[in-house]
Write a structure and sequence with these properties.
With about 290 residues, the protein is mainly alpha-helical. Helix content is about 65%, strand content about 5%.
C-alpha cells in the first residue's frame, strides 16, 4: 500500500479515534433502545427495518421476507422464522407483496416515545461530534422534542439514526462471525475503558489511548449496561480473555489493550464510514451540520 493509499484511509484522519469513541457510545445506547422493541435482536431489527421503511416513504411497498433477509444480511430461514413469530404476536402484519408494521407503530403513544428517544440519542451523538470538532450542530436543534409529532427536521435526524443503528448491528454481527452478543460485550468493554475521556473535552485527542490511561471495568458492570445475565457476560468476557482480545486486570476487571484495538481496526474503519454516511444523509435531508 502506497503512502497516498494510507493517507486516504479513515484512520489517517485526525478525528478518526475521537469520532469512533463518541460514535460507539451512540451505538451502545442505541442497542439498549433496540432491545426495548423486542428481547431478541433479530426480531427487533426486523421491526425497526419495517418501521423505518414506512417512516421514510408513505408510498413504500411492504417488504418481502427475502428482501428483509438481504437488508439484514441474515439467512432467509432465520428471518422467516422470526417473521412468523412477529406476525403471531401482532408486531408485524402481512399484506399483499410482503410485510409491514401495524399502524399503531406509526401513531401510538409508545411509538411517539420511542421516536423521541431515538431522536434524543441521535442529537447527543451530534452534540458530541460537535464537541470534538467533527461537525457543527446548531444549538437551536439540540432541544428535546416535546410530546407529540416530531418536526420534519427532527424526523430526518430520527430516520437517519435508525438507519445508522441497523447498519451498526449488521456490521457488528458480520465482524464477529454472527455472534452479536460477543461483539456487544467486546465493544461495551472498550468503550467503558475510555469513557472517562470520551465524556470530557479530552475526547478530541487524536491518538489511541495508551493502556495506562484505560480504566478496567467489571464484568458485572458490563452485564448491567447491556442488560445481559451476568453468566452470559462472564462467559463472553472469559472467551475474549482466552483469545487475547481482552486483558484481565486482577480484581479491577478487564480492558481492551491499545495493541488489540489496532488489531480490530478494520471494524472501526467500517464503523467510521457508517457515521460519515449518516452525516451525509442528514445533509441531504436539509440538516445543516
Amino acid at each position: 500500500m502506497s503512502q497516498s493509499d494510507i493517507r486516504s484511509l479513515p484512520t489517517a484522519r485526525h478525528d478518526f479515534h475521537p469520532v469512533m469513541r463518541v460514535s460507539y457510545e451512540f451505538f451502545m445506547r442505541s442497542f439498549d433502545l433496540l432491545g426495548q422493541l423486542h428481547e431478541h435482536a433479530v426480531s427487533a431489527s426486523i421491526i425497526m427495518t419495517l418501521w423505518r421503511g414506512r417512516l421514510a416513504g408513505a408510498g413504500r411497498k411492504p417488504m418481502a421476507v427475502r428482501e428483509l433477509s438481504r437488508e439484514l444480511n441474515l439467512p432467509y430461514e432465520t428471518v422467516r422464522r422470526h417473521v412468523r413469530d412477529l406476525e403471531l404476536s401482532g408486531a408485524c402484519v402481512v399484506m399483499t407483496g410482503g410485510l409491514t408494521v401495524p399502524d399503531t407503530m406509526l401513531e401510538g403513544p409508545r411509538a411517539s416515545r420511542m421516536l423521541r428517544r431515538i431522536h434524543v440519542n441521535a442529537v447527543r451523538l451530534l452534540v458530541d461530534l460537535t464537541r470534538i470538532g467533527a461537525v457543527t450542530f446548531p444549538s437551536a436543534l439540540r432541544r428535546a422534542p416535546p410530546p407529540g409529532r416530531l418536526t420534519m427536521e427532527q424526523m430526518v435526524i430520527t430516520i437517519a439514526a435508525m438507519g445508522l443503528l441497523l447498519a451498526g448491528v449488521r456490521l457488528m454481527r458480520d465482524f464477529w462471525g454472527g455472534d452479536l452478543v460477543k461483539g456487544l460485550v467486546f465493544t461495551a468493554i472498550w468503550t467503558a475503558n475510555v469513557k472517562h475521556v470520551t465524556n470530557t473535552s479530552r475526547a478530541a485527542t487524536s491518538s489511541v489511548l495508551p493502556d495506562d490511561l484505560r480504566q478496567p471495568v467489571s464484568v458485572l458492570a458490563i452485564a448491567r449496561s447491556l442488560r445481559l445475565p451476568y453468566e452470559t457476560a462472564r462467559r463472553h468476557a472469559d472467551a475474549l480473555v482466552r483469545e487475547g482480545l481482552c486483558v484481565r486486570a486482577g480484581r479491577q476487571g478487564v480492558f481492551v489493550s491499545a495493541q488489540m484495538l489496532e488489531r480490530t481496526v478494520a471494524g472501526s474503519v467500517a464503523g467510521h464510514r457508517l457515521v460519515m454516511a449518516f452525516l451525509a444523509e442528514l445533509r441531504l435531508g436539509g440538516v445543516k451540520i
